[in-house]
Amino acid sequence: MDVAFQRCILPSCGATYGIEEVRVECQQCGSLLDVAYDWAKAAPPAKLAEFDRSLFNAAEPAAQSGVWRFWPLLPFAPRASLVTIGEGQTQLQRSASVGQFVGLERGELHLQYEGLNPSGSFKDNGMVAAFTHARTIGAKRAACASTGNTSASLAAFCSVTKLMRAVIFIGSGKISYGKLSQALDFGALTIQIAGDFDDAMQRVREVSSQLGIYLVNSVNPFRLEGQKTIMYRVLQGLGWQVPDWIVVPGGNLGNSSAFGKAFAELKQLGLIDRLPRLAVINAAGANTLYELYERRGLRWNDGAPQDEITSKYYAELDERQARASTIASAIEINRPVNLNKCLRALADMRGVVREVTDQEIMDAKAQVGAGGLGCEPASAASVAGAKKLRAEGVIAPDERVVCILTGHQLKDPDATVAYHTTDQEKFNQVLGKRGVKRASFANRAVAVSNNLEEIIRAIQLYS
Ligand code: F0G
């Protein structure tokens, strides 16, 4: 057996494929694939603390990567072939103020700030892995459907390295300007489809398979290998201690799936002795996972998920012509492609799923911003979800909780400005129409005339 191979996630199938094959589903049964390892050959370190020392010497490009720092835990490509644009140099930061907002008086709230990646979101962690795989098999073009961050990340990797041409599919009017501007600026071929993300996702799969273009959405199992490293960095930030909770927004469910795999593997390797619990947070306007998991009882079921529950729900969505709708445009997704992998993660990590309203998302986002780490609306779903779970008593007041901030504040300045504005029309246009009634934590700009005395009076009054 090779060090790494691909394997169907369903134990009842278990078909395997070589690492050099380009697949986004099992040829036997159509399920998702994992990248799997023969750990005896891969020989990972005996202790996580060994990662405190760099694997690479300073002159090697991979030394600049917070993903490849953990290469022995994702050794699917030779060290000499690793691509990097400096991704994954992100930070775990404890936040007393956000902790107080969430209700963790005696506990700890940590924010894993993935907005610090080169393209401004966690996607770079996964993209570097898919991109490296694409390069090892000689791909010339790579495609994705995106609510904006995957496309920004792919476009960045293509333009920095010039190793591939980016082809991106986006829904029309469904992407924030911060993200669209990245794809355009970086020179990606941008296909705007009259439809939403779910439509774009279906089309990009068809087009990639017909034209032989390498697909980098998170159905690509290599993507998720890179995203595992977010959890390794969380552990490292906590001195290699396992927190009580990981709280993450859920869209296409790639992150939650990757996090589950990361911890399951670490446990299997004897590098940790317990898994944290997982909370996946949907926006209420795009709540497929919440509906299926919490209301309809869909479970991983030891590798035999009841797919008929999912198909029935999707048929209902079709019948109602229901479309995902939330201010958190990054997670405006009704048909998450990694659903079954996420169910597995929820089973392994004793997971829960919650939905939060756009009002809750925007208030949580303002609290995160006030704490100094600005994030986009989707990211704040994690904090809003933690607050909800704390209020329910599911998260205890003395627990250690890590919320993942998936994308940077500047990805969607419209949402932020509309929240803080004094212009009611602007507020209504962006937020009011989504049921956001008030900006509970608005920091309003103070309007003054161009007059020295008046300016001084305003500063004295408000500071
Ligand atoms: N947060 C942000 C900022 C995102 O961009 C996404 C996904 C998610 C959360 C959800 O993560 O899919 O792993 O559950 N954005 C994708 C995109 C869909 O196209 O950029 P997930």
Give a quick precis of the structure:
The chain has 16 helices and 13 strands.
- Compute the number of helices: 16
Q: Low-confidence segments, ≥5 residues, pLDDT <50?
A: none
- Calculate the mean pLDDT score and round it: 96
User: Which structural class best describes the helix and strand composition?
Assistant: alpha/beta
Oligomer description: single chain
Which term fits the overall shape?
A: globular
Specify the CATH architecture of the domain at 91-119 and 223-415.
3-Layer(aba) Sandwich
The CATH class of the domain at 91-119 and 223-415 is: Alpha Beta
Strand order of the largest sheet: 4-5-13-10-11-12
Bound molecules: ligand F0G
Computed over alpha carbons, the radius of gyration is 22 Å
| Major sheet characteristics | 6 strands, mixed
| CATH topology-level fold name of the domain at 91-119 and 223-415 | Rossmann fold
- Strand and helix order: EEEHEHEHEHEHEHEHEHEHHHEHHEHHH
Question: Into which percent range does the helicity of residues fall?
Answer: 25-40%
- Amount of beta strand: 5-15%
The span between the termini is 67 Å
Counting DSSP E segments of at least 2 residues, the number of strands comes to 13
Key features of this structure:
16 helices; alpha/beta; 6-stranded mixed beta sheet; 4-stranded parallel beta sheet; about 475 residues
Verbal overview:
The chain is 39% helix and 14% strand. It is α/β, with parallel strands linked by helices and 463 residues long. The strands form 3 sheets. The protein has a 6-stranded mixed β-sheet with strand order 4-5-13-10-11-12, sandwiched between helices. The protein has a 4-stranded parallel β-sheet with strand order 8-7-6-9, sandwiched between helices. Helix 8 (254-268) links the parallel strand 10 and strand 11 (277-283). The model has no long low-confidence stretch (mean pLDDT 96). Bound molecules: ligand F0G.
